Amino acid sequence: MRRVSKPWPPANVSPDGQEACTCARAEQDYLAVLPTAQDRTAFARSQFDRLDKAKLREVMYQEQRSICIYCERGIEESHPAPRIDHWKPLSGNHDHALCWKNLYLSCPTPGTCDDAKGQRPLKWDDADPDLPWAVDFAYEDVLGFTSRGEIYVRSGTNLDNARRKALELAIDDRQDGDRKRAAILNLNHPTLVAARAAALDSERTRLQKEFETRTASRDDRAERASGLVAGNPLPQFVSIRVAWLKKTLGKGR
Fold first, then answer.
1. How many Å apart are CA 202 and CA 197, to the nearest integer?
2. What are phi and psi of 100, to 5 degrees?
3. pLDDT tens-digit map of 70-99
4. How far apart, in whole angstroms, are the C-alpha atoms of residue 134 and residue 163?
5. Whether the Cβ atoms of residue 228 and residue 200 lie closer than 8 Å to each other
6. Could you read off the pLDDT of 31-45 as tens digits, one per residue?
7. Parallel, antiparallel, or unpaired for β 83-86 and 103-106?
8. C-beta separation of 62 from 53 below 8 A
């Protein structure tokens, strides 16, 4: 999970052959009718489903630089196509059904990310606010990684209790009194842990090859990390690569 920039919603979200309509205009028209809808969830879903998803994804690939908003797997226009996820679930947030800041691409990996999340909100308690949109919060500053490829919420970060618990539940199963709650995004699914560890190995191998005659200095590693973060597309699992380069693996656990 990393902060993304979403400055330019699609200029046309209508299917080919229909009158062109901007994303902002589609949302405006939808919100004008929403108060009169008898079944707001059904209406929200129908209006969202009318949008040309390929045109939405085309812009989202550029915004997210071709990685899943949750796990950072690489994503591309293939079959099955990445899912367009409502960060704040459509069923409980009708006002945000067509809100551009609420829409993100998620990989189609079974059992993780949007597939695990479904219509569950990114929060611990119903009374808590949802985790902030990725456009509004630098998740890379509060999430850490181990050398084995696991992700965790770092200690010592400026997180209130509600956000910390929501992030922890997003990552792993959690005990809540006498019941066990399933992870919302399941970001420590064995498949993801193994894939992160493999990405870490590839980054280590690449650096060893580049610096065969000497050890990479702190500045060399920092330069490499900056290059990764500036890339488009981003390398998949970029955050654990950067953590290794900056020697912060396991810090704050």
1. 9
2. -60, -35
3. 999 999 888 888 999 999 999 989 999 999
4. 13
5. no
6. 999 999 999 999 999
7. antiparallel
8. no
CB 143 within 8 A of CB 1: yes
How far apart are the C-alpha atoms of 170 and 36, rounded to whole Å? 34
pLDDT above 70 coverage of the chain, percent: 100
Q: Distance of CA 51 to CAs 4, 19, 42, 66, 101, Å?
A: 22, 12, 15, 21, 16
pLDDT, mean over the chain: 94
Structure tokens at 129: 């606010």
pLDDT tens per residue, range 114-166: 999 999 999 999 999 999 999 999 999 999 999 999 999 999 888 999 999 99
Q: Which amino acid makes up residue 89?
A: P
User: Distance between CA atoms of 199 and 207, rounded to whole angstroms?
Assistant: 12
Nearest alpha-carbon partner for 22 in 37, 33, 11: 11
Element (H, E) at 144: strand 143-145
Give the CA distances from residue 92 to residues 104, 118, 119, 168, 202, in Å, rounded to whole numbers and listed in that order: 17, 12, 8, 22, 41
pTM for the whole structure: 0.93
DSSP-assigned letter for residue 174:
E
The three-class DSSP label of residue 83 is strand
How far is it, in rounded angstroms, from Cα 50 to Cα 152? 38
**Residue 201's pLDDT is what?**
95
Compute and round to an integer the Cα radius of gyration of the chain.
20
Could you identify the residue written with the tokens 């949008």?
A: 51
